[in-house]
């Protein structure tokens, strides 16, 4: 077994006043740590000299303890590798490691009754999300990571990481790195018709954080918020955990039904919408509904939270202009993210807030987690300024079109009567309605066992829907995986 590099040793508790000799206290401590799995088989332990130095004791008890532990088979030595925990120590003493795309939330052992958690935390619990364990077909929200220009990206990361100036490593501005905010302001006004200046842009760790900050800055407990029905579960979570009351407002072929919102949620303080590409149904909000919503917000002193998560990817015509660009009353908070156009693990997104709200959002951003990683912000600035961003989006648009066509053909070939496709005009996912009476959660669970990830549509509803469906992400799936995935799905209901 290759020795595992020395890592931090858990705190060693020694009692100088104890009648137990120091070497014995030490060997007892090591034995316990190895059996409990705090020290793993093959893990390197400190040399006797450095441990004695760290514990501020003489080297003799450390030497005696190590000798004892060799003799008992807990430690072994390798030439050139120093002293390690014996690799033959039984598995129970070690913790499993291994990279998995997603793991179920850990259960706390040793408590028979569930322990008390806050009401807020209880609201975050949902059913086990088995469909998150796979990173291939049809994981929702995953871009084509296999086509990401890694060589260019890593060159830019290297450029800034090698000789990082102090500003890149110290605490940064809660609003974000100014040159990036300037680049984003230019991009948004050109491509998304957003009306903004860099001073109105607040960098976040992604839209999810943007939603949380909006909820905290704009709403008080029990305030009513209109939510698209069906809608984005992450938004449900953000507003629920802030104590807001969620009002489901149906979405039809024109987007959110504003008249129905007024009927169901009079006095609401805010509306959450994804007008360019509704999540999950894929509809585009009509101009009439946009204007209705804006005039409702102006007349009722309400906010509109516009989630513009993937509208760069439209397959015919130009991207739909933002709702924020139509707003003359400063009622819209616009949310964008680099998760879909770059990669989700980057954790970078942004909000565009009205000028008179900048101070409130500055405080909200600061309270959330101070600021976003400066290194990635600096690298992203170059990525945009040097033209890589526009090139990457153009390339991905063509690729997603091909993946979408393959998915539609596979559905047509293998399950033409079982799945009814809606919302395939844009983005990286579509919805396939299931036959009535088929449970989408049950299908998703079965599919996960076959290595296929499909997200149940019913979980996007606040009230139980009449018909279940599957959200199929195709952005991150290769063509053959798409075909195989649909063939495997056929046997899941
Ligand atoms: C509609 C919608 N909004 C927001 C997000 C969150 O994205 P982020 O990774 O920026 O938090 C997603 C992610 O899938 C999404 O689908």
Word description of this protein:
With 493 residues, the chain is an alpha/beta fold. The chain has helices at 22-35, 48-55, 59-71, 119-124, 150-162, 166-169, 178-191, 207-218, 233-241, 258-264, 287-300, 358-369, 374-385, 388-414, 440-449, 479-489, and strands at 75-78, 82-85, 201-204, 224-229, 245-252, 255-256, 270-273, 303-307, 332-337, 349-352, 420-422, 429-433, 455-456, 469-473. 38% of the residues lie in helices and 13% in strands. The strands form 3 sheets. An 8-stranded mixed β-sheet has the order 3-10-9-8-7-4-5-6, with helices on both faces. A 4-stranded antiparallel β-sheet has the order 11-12-14-13, with helices on one face. Strands 1-2 form a two-stranded antiparallel sheet. It is globular and about 85 Å long. The two termini are 46 Å apart. 39% of the residues are buried. The model is unreliable at 93-99 (pLDDT under 50). It binds pyridoxal-5'-phosphate (PLP). Pyridoxal-5'-phosphate (PLP) is lined by residues 141, 206-208, 232, 234, 274, 279, 307, 309, 337, 339, 344, 349. The site of pyridoxal-5'-phosphate has 14 residues, from helix 8.
| Helix residue percentage | 25-40%
Structural class: alpha/beta
SSE pattern, N- to C-terminal: HHHEEHHHHEHEHEEHEHEEEHHHEEHEEH
CATH architecture identity of the largest domain: 3-Layer(aba) Sandwich
What's the gyration radius in Å? Answer: 27 Å
Total beta strands:
14
Total domain units: 3
